[in-house]
Amino acid sequence: MSHPDLLTPKRNFRLSVVIPLYNEEANLDALSRRLLQVLPGVSEDFEIIYVNDGSTDGTARGIEAWHQREPRIKGVMLSRNFGHQAAISAGLAFASGEAVVVMDGDLQDRPEEIPRFVALWQQGHEVVYAVRRRRAGVPWWKRLAYAAFYRVQQRVADTPVPLDSGDFALLDRRVVQWLNQFPEGDRFLRGLRSWVGLRQVGLEVDRDARAAGEPKYRLRSLVRLAADGLVSFSLKPLRWLLVLGGCLILAGSATLVGSLAAGGSSLVSLSGLMCLLSGVQLAALGIVGEYVGRTYMNLKARPVFLVDRLLGLEQHLAQVPRHLAFPTPAGRKAA
Ligand code: UDP
Ligand code: MG
Fold first, then answer.
1. Residue 122: which of 38, 216, 201, 213 has the closest Cα?
2. What mean pLDDT is predicted for residues 185-197?
3. Contact 59, 21 (CB under 8 A)
4. Which string of DSSP letters, residue by residue, matches 234-279?
5. How far apart are CA 205 and CA 224, in angstroms?
6. Which sign, positive or negative, has the C-alpha torsion 311, 313, 319, 320?
7. What is the CA radius of gyration of the chain?
């Protein structure tokens, strides 16, 4: 006979949903409404943590209004725009759920999928991550770049990020606590998440087009994120450079010997070779620089984010580790 608990999964666990918001005023109402429709059916004890990542539109006011109306909607207001990964880190630092869902605030990730994540968690998986079946409303060049990135990252990283998985995921409390203790400043969370291990499972979801507003990731930040994903998880690129250097030395010596034997060489092929070699050297220097630069930034050990004020999360300030944010009491009260 099966145990009754297996037939009816428990509904009185604490569920946190962490959502970074940067100028998402236009999506906030629809997002909150859809979440409030879904979450009560999943758990009786849930919280929604909106992280306002230095928005310049009405996002902060919107979060305040929703917090007034529904105290289970809470806010972490950062002191400026720290970026998507830092904003998620901030939400994770304040989340107190036994299960924590991370999702985007532009409704590309569907709140209605959350019950499927929770079901897999209740079956014993500590990390349930979304795998994109289809990306709606993403230009072809971006799609191509994403596909290329995930494939290169798989080759480079010692603990690869699963193909086409994003930040949309459910994390068990244990995983969140570990992530909060990671000291690094470059937080490529989907990489850290897979580095953690335990029982992980991918869940296929469709990704909708952004509901309103413009994508907040500009090309520059996407490139930075990709570099983090490649460099933060492996020293392989450095080793490849060594191998490449070795090959070039061999090829160069062979060419030199060959051209000497043939009694001279053309200027054109020589300048081509020079150009190629200096290109390789500069690129190599650049890759080394990516590592050295990160070492430098991390040595400074600045916190990942700073909190301006909190809505409904004041009592959790003390639990935030010092390397993530300084535990100074939040400044102003809600305006
Ligand atoms: N975001 C953020 N800080 C930023 C950039 C983005 O908090 O500096 C949030 C944004 O509001 C959204 C999520 O991160 O909720 C994903 O951003 P976006 O939709 O622009 O990224 P994309 O879907 O293009 O990868
Ligand atoms: Mg988006």
1. 201
2. 83
3. yes
4. -SHHHHHHHHHHHHHHHHHHHHHHHHHHTT---HHHHHHHHHHHHH
5. 26
6. negative
7. 24
Distance 8 CA to ligand 2 centre (A): 34
Element (H, E) at 3: none
DSSP letter, residue 200 = E
User: Which residue is closest in CA terms to ligand 1's atom 24?
Assistant: 215
Evaluate: CB of 166 within 6 angstroms of ligand 1: no
Most confident by average pLDDT, 169-173, 206-210, 232-236, 299-303: 169-173
Gap between the Cα atoms of 123 and 210, Å rounded? 31
> Residue 51: CB partners within 8 Å, gap ≥ 6?
18, 19, 20, 21, 75, 76, 78, 87, 88, 90, 91
How far apart are the C-alpha atoms of 125 and 171, rounded to whole Å? 9
- Amino acid present at 142: K
Least confident of 74-83, 120-129, 149-158: 149-158
Kindly indicate the confidence band of residue 329, based on its pLDDT and cuts at 50, 70 and 90: low
Shortest CA distance to 121 belongs to which of 192, 32, 42? 42
CA torsion angle 227 232 234 236 (round to 10) = 30
Indicate if ligand 1 lies below 6 Å from the C-beta of 87.
yes
Six-digit token pair at 43? 């758990």
Cα gap 211→27, rounded to integer Å: 7
Looking only at the bridges linking them, the beta strands covering 73-78 and 99-102 are: unpaired
Residue 214 CA: which ligand 1 atom is closest? Answer: 20
CA pair distance 116, 122, nearest whole angstrom: 10
Q: Ligand 1 mean position to 180 CA, how many Å? A: 21
**Side chain identity at residue 203, one-letter code:** L
Q: How many CA atoms lie within 13 A of 16 on its CB side?
A: 24
